[in-house]
Write a structure and sequence with these properties.
Layout lengths: L1 E10 L6 H13 L4 E9 L6 H7 L3 E4 L5 H10 L5 E4 L10 H9 L4 E5 L2 E3 L4 H17 L6 E4 H6 L11 H14 L4 E4 L5 E3 L2 H6 L3 H16 L11 H8 L4
Parallel strand pairs: 1-2, 1-4, 2-3, 5-8, 6-9
Antiparallel strand pairs: 4-7, 5-7
Length: 248
């Protein structure tokens, strides 16, 4: 049995949600016979039992001490052996047909990479507005969230995730793959019918309308200084408090 797929999960204190994701991956693995899914948990300096839960679930575990989600993703990819790299957040859950759809997409040489998109685990007016705005941006750019997939060689060709970014590293990564694909007349794709679950725990914690306040706080820095404001050096507290010091 070959490791066609390597699924890389960056994780910081994800003992609560990780079992749900692993269970969904094992269910999806059954839909694609004769192929192992190599699950790699990149433990980003967790203080809970994230690493133990991952190991007991049959995952490979790599410790990544640099508190940066891009570094965690790269750390997981660094020990991956699969032909196709897949990246998913630890608080998510994947569709049972995910690997079938990924395999179909990656057999098409005109596709360089893609994503599944997401559905939210609950809805409210405060969630619907940013969600549909994201959907519009995705339609225009072909950049989406959820599970992100690419071939092994293309991951390394673009240098993986940019570790100077503390946020939006997933968007930057897909833009890099999109630029790389143009050289070979390749494009990004959005897989249909296999959206990953989008966890709403940030909204549960901070309120359904908090995202607008957050953007108001973060956007001035980005507009003034560019994407470099989210770099690992001297990041704004609005970023570190929200994305890197979660209440879990």
């Amino acid at each position: 049995m070959s490791d066609r797929f390597s699924l890389i999960i960056p994780a910081y204190n994800e003992a609560r949600y990780l079992p749900r994701l692993i269970s969904s991956v094992r269910a999806a693995e059954l839909a694609f016979p004769n192929t192992n899914v190599e699950i790699i948990v990149a433990d980003n300096s967790s203080t809970d039992d994230t690493a133990g839960i991952a190991a007991s679930g049959g995952c490979k575990v790599v410790r990544v001490d640099k508190r940066c989600i891009a570094a965690a993703r790269n750390g997981g990819a660094g020990i991956a052996s699969g032909e196709i790299f897949c990246f998913i957040d630890a608080d998510s859950e994947i569709h049972p047909e995910t690997f079938v759809r990924i395999d179909e997409a990656m057999q098409d040489p005109s596709i360089i990479a893609g994503s599944t998109g997401i559905y939210l685990e609950r809805m409210s007016p405060g969630l619907m507005i940013p969600y549909h705005a994201m959907m519009l941006i995705s339609w225009v750019t072909t950049i989406d969230a959820g599970l992100v997939l690419c071939r092994r060689e293309d991951f390394f060709a673009v240098g993986g995730y940019y570790e100077d970014l503390l946020l939006a590293e997933d968007v930057d990564f897909l833009f890099a793959l999109k630029r790389h694909g143009r050289e070979h007349r390749q494009k990004l794709t959005r897989l249909k019918g296999v959206e990953a679950l989008g966890c709403t725990r940030k909204f549960d914690e901070h309120g359904d309308w908090h995202y607008f306040k957050l953007l108001w706080q973060v956007l001035p820095n980005i507009i003034e200084l560019g994407i470099g404001t989210t770099t690992y050096k001297n990041p704004p507290s609005e970023i570190t408090d929200y994305w890197y010091q979660p209440n879990r």
